[in-house]
Design goal:
Number of helices: 19
Helix content: over 70%
Strand order of the largest sheet: 1-2
Structural class: mainly alpha
Number of strands: 2
Largest sheet: 2 strands, antiparallel
Shape: globular
Radius of gyration: 23 Å
Order of helices and strands: HHHHHHHHHHHHHHHHHHEEH
């Protein structure tokens, strides 16, 4: 009967590519390719933002974490993310939408000059290449386990190449419209799968199962350990989740082109703000659904540990239930949903990296202004280039050892603080010029590299002292503080420069002075 599951998966992969292309239509300009001529409904953009930030590991790790003691800690994290997105919607999105930008880093170009715009964009694309390459390989791990169960024994490299090829087809031809529509469909599939799993598990365990899970602390929401070392090292400590999570979300959703590009595809400023805030609410609901799956699986398995269940880790828990606890065809649909999570994050990364290459790097480092036809061709070529590089990088992990998930999580710590700090420097420090911002940016990346790699805090657990890294949420505020401090000090060493196209502190860019070129000028 597993053949039926395989048929479902294959049909899904073909259908998602075809659907994405049909909904996308044809692109005539680079702006259409990158932001869909700002014509996308806000709710589809919101779903796309959620799908973009949701990897395969999110889908399978949240239930496993809830099962093994985290409770609903991920929902607590999401509450901080909602706060951060409200700030982004209020402060940063008006800058991008009213400026007619197709890239977040065009604001840095109009505020400081093309040097910082190009530096921020180069930092973004290479950070995204590393992060998404690790993410792509990590996604292949559970997919391989699922396919082995179906009797399809494919290596990691084969899975990586196939996923990349299918994704790049609709990303290359359909642009951002195809990416957003397919993301929305894929989010519906994997989230619907979680709801279905909750329904099946609820029928198995009944009210008594809910009571057992509640009594065992499986529904615990807030981590109220307020010791300093716990706050600094645990991502689930309440201050870390709310305060650190809010600032982290400001960086990931306000200064990362991967997310900002989707919001720029909405029809209006208000739609963009609704899409941003709603995405935070949807992420909280998503975490709640997957956490509930984990809590109910605890009752379903009567609290047995992973070794007793014959599983190697918590990440095998949800896939094992999909394969052995659900009917044929239904399990195939949920496996397709896991594939969809991988494809959604990959397609978003490819389109945003191509966007930043064309809109930021080309316009920052080259004085010529290519025609629209040339820019559209370049956009598609760069989509292929980044897809190839990402697949090669992901394949390099196929024979590597180590925790690739943790590797992917730490990459953002190197640059997010510098990126968000550059935006805040432009808004807060009136005297800061391009030289100040570039020096502050580079110093911050250097400082954060040292902190991520070398700084550890001794944490005592079960009588043993373990050197533990600083929680990822605190890396962004540290980086922002360094950027603002260095930029502010540098700005005191010279006279205040004239604003370069943006009235600092105003709500929108000066329409008469911005460096908006033919390729990025709003219609």
């Amino acid at each position: 009967m597993r053949q039926l599951d395989l048929v479902v998966i294959v049909v899904y992969l073909v259908a998602i590519a075809v659907t994405g292309l049909r909904l996308a239509g044809r692109q005539k300009t680079s702006k259409d390719y990158f932001v869909g001529e700002s014509s996308m409904p806000w709710w589809t953009v919101s779903f796309s933002v959620v799908a973009t930030e949701t990897s395969v590991l999110t889908v399978i790790s949240v239930p496993g974490g809830a099962y093994s003691g985290q409770g609903f800690g991920n929902v607590e994290l999401a509450l901080g993310y909602v706060v951060g997105r409200v700030v982004v919607a209020t402060v940063l999105i008006p800058l991008y939408k009213r400026g007619g930008f197709v890239s977040a880093y065009q604001y840095l170009g109009t505020r400081f000059g093309p040097g910082l715009q190009g530096l921020a964009s180069v930092t973004f694309v290479f950070t995204r290449l590393l992060a998404e390459g690790v993410r792509l390989f990590a996604s292949a791990i559970p997919i391989k386990l699922l396919l082995d169960e179906f009797g399809v024994h494919a290596g990691y490299r084969v899975i990586i190449v196939v996923l990349t090829l299918i994704t790049v087809v609709y990303t290359y031809l359909g642009g951002i419209k195809a990416v957003i529509w397919t993301d929305a469909i894929q989010m519906g599939l994997y989230l619907g799968g979680a709801v279905l799993a909750v329904a099946v598990l609820s029928a198995h365990v009944g009210g008594a199962g809910f009571s057992r899970a509640l009594g065992a602390g499986q529904f615990r929401l807030f981590d109220t350990d307020f010791t300093l070392t716990h706050i600094l090292t645990s991502p689930f400590a309440l201050p870390t989740a709310i305060v650190g999570g809010a600032i982290f979300a400001m960086a990931s959703h306000g200064s990362d082109q991967l997310i900002v590009q989707r919001v720029l595809a909405t029809r209006s400023l208000r739609d963009g703000q609704k899409a941003m805030v709603a995405s935070g609410v949807f992420v909280a609901l998503q975490f709640a659904a997957f956490s509930l799956v984990g809590a109910l699986l605890w009752s379903y398995n009567e609290g047995r540990n992973f070794k007793e269940l014959g599983l190697s880790s918590s990440d095998n828990l949800y896939p094992d239930f999909i394969l052995h606890g659900l009917p044929v065809v239904i399990s195939g649909l949920l496996v397709a949903g896991i594939l969809g999570a991988a494809m959604g994050s990959l397609s978003s990364a490819l389109n945003s990296m191509s966007n930043s290459t064309v809109a930021d790097i080309v316009h920052s480092f080259f004085r010529t202004r290519p025609s629209e036809a040339s820019l559209l061709r370049l956009a598609r070529v760069m989509t292929l280039v980044w897809a190839a590089l990402m697949a090669v990088f992901a394949c390099a992990f196929s024979t590597s050892t180590g925790n690739v998930y943790l590797t992917g999580l730490t990459i953002a710590g190197y640059t997010y603080g510098a990126l968000l700090g550059a935006f805040l420097l432009g808004r807060i420090v009136r005297r800061a010029g391009q030289a100040d911002s570039v020096v502050a940016f580079l110093v911050t990346v250097g400082v954060m590299t040292y902190i991520v790699r070398a700084v550890k805090i001794d944490v005592t657990t079960a009588g043993a002292t373990v050197p533990t890294a600083i929680a990822a949420q605190w890396l962004v505020p540290i980086g922002v503080a360094v950027t603002l401090a260095v930029g502010s000090l540098m700005s005191l060493l010279h006279r205040a420069p004239e604003p370069a196209g943006v009235r600092v502190g105003a709500d929108e860019p000066d329409p008469g002075e911005g460096r908006v070129t033919a390729a990025t000028r709003p219609n």
